[in-house]
């Protein structure tokens, strides 16, 4: 009996060591920063047909505007997709995140406008309106699709097989409705929030990396970082185009 | 042959087909202008329903209204054209219609039963149209056959309307299929858009042929008439239509937003840095391509050339005898081109409102039809024996003395 409990204790110890080693090697790094817009963004335009539509109009009390440039506090630029472009250990494969990004069709608009997901990661596409939308995916590298969502609350999970930037989703029932999703073959990406802040976190060992920021209208900009002790910061500027 | 009251009724029915087709071109144009073609993802079903049984509430939602109405309207035009073929062909056409109907129904059944999901739609479509053709064949009414030309044209319309329906379906079913650097949606959409306008020109020509204005034996040329100018003008207008077609389906309608110059130049610079600059000036997220700009500017340049050709034809045909159909047609053509030019400018100037862009397509279609009929009338006039003296005397008030001394080809 004594020997048995000893063995158990030892296995426990070995197990704990294994876990702590694992935690160390899955170096939970965090890259944070802010994307700023240089120059004055052209004013947003009103999406006029939305208020004219018999079903969509009543869902809005104020004019709905285009979202080409969304600039927040201190020139922070929203909807920029930021991702590790180079430096990821070659040959390493990463588990697909189990979280499911949600793309919601609500008030005849896509929310969020810009999303990101990993190859194989399920994206939930939802209709929160009480009438029909069709989800027409205009992928160029991946396989596109087009299906109708008639029911309020209907959710369809979709995955993509290949990395592709700016896969466009449109609704032809309401042709002003569009959204984009960026697909990566690794999990190191983020979309900047309303004030331009982003956080990329995950299993990135200390070392040098290239980070790229992509804005649909303004284009891309890259910057170099060095992750030290699991941390790095990077601020990037994008110019009005 | 055909009693006059029956031929008048036939003419009226053909005019109905022409008007229904014009309406169909307008709704089809609206579907493209608004970009709502794929709001109904399936075909010939609509959201899985038999298309004639789609709940009204779904039909009335956003762009579904345009797309589904286009499908229903097209089915009606198909039905009308099959009946027209039966009417014009007389009782003799019943046998052919019965055979065709049976073959189509059988082919449809085979496609549905033994081929994959991709061909199921086409199969149901064939079964549907086969039934309509069989119905026309079963029609016992003893309409008498009309002219050989009318019969030929009606059979052409019969086949074209079915091809047009299938192409519309393929445009939906193969929307995302990658072909020749583009997609099935764009490719079949363009063929469908082009054939639709040619189909309109065909039924319009048929209607004119059945009308009381069709008196080819009286179309004597005053002077030797040449077909060169009508052919050239028609080609330029058809070329213009093709450029417009590519422009619409490649979303190049607003590739150039200034007028009359393009980005301040007659032919804009198209180096990558220029394109980047142009894209920056646009509201749209997607950048503008060199191809889009080229097509757009070519459409503008050819608009001027084609309009001048129509004007020249108008001026030349003023020397035809009074009341000659060709001179009336070229007046109409000139008026249409004028309106068309204005609508084109307004399309750009007002940032392509769907109704204006669609009106531009509709008037373009009328212009093509007028050109085609003009060419036909000119060809028939040319084939009449040239009797300069007699017809000259009839229309002497139209011809100046100098042109008598030096007969040169008119038009
Ligand atoms: C005068 C002779 C003209 C003719 C016969 C003509 C014909 C056409 C046709 C048939 C189409 C549509 C094709 C289709 O979708 O099936 C089209 C499209 C178009 N045309 Fe013209 N056009 C003419 C002049 C012009 C001019 C002067 C302008 C402007 C400067 C113009 C601007 C456009 C534009 C912007 C479109 C595309 C509209 C869209 O994307 O919805 N056109 N044209
Ligand atoms: Cu929608």
Report on this structure:
The complex is a heterodimer of chains A (241) and B (411). With 241 residues, chain A is mainly beta. Chain A has one domain: Sandwich (Immunoglobulin-like). Chain A is 12% helix and 41% strand. Chain A has two helices and 16 strands. In chain A, the strands form four sheets. A five-stranded mixed β-sheet of chain A has the order 5-11-10-7-8, with no helix packed on it. In chain A, a hairpin with a 2-residue loop joins strand 3 (102-106) and strand 4. The longest helix of chain A is centred in the first third of the chain and has 24 residues, at 2-25. The termini of chain A are far apart. The model of chain A is unreliable at 1-25 (pLDDT under 50). Chain B is mainly alpha-helical and 411 residues long. Chain B has two domains: 4-214, no CATH class; 218-396. Chain B has 14 helices and two strands; from the N terminus they run ααααααββαααααααα. Chain B has helices at 4-34, 56-59, 64-89, 93-114, 117-138, 148-173, 184-210, 228-249, 272-281, 290-317, 325-349, 354-383, 388-394, 401-405, and strands at residues 178-179, 182-183. Chain B has a two-stranded antiparallel ribbon. Chain B is flat. The two termini of chain B are 36 Å apart. The model of chain B is unreliable at 388-411 (pLDDT under 50). Residues 32-33, 193, 237, 240-241, 244-245, 247-248, 253, 299-300, 303, 306-307, 337, 340-341, 344-345, 347-348, 352, 357, 360-361, 364, 367 of chain B line the site of protoporphyrin IX containing FE.
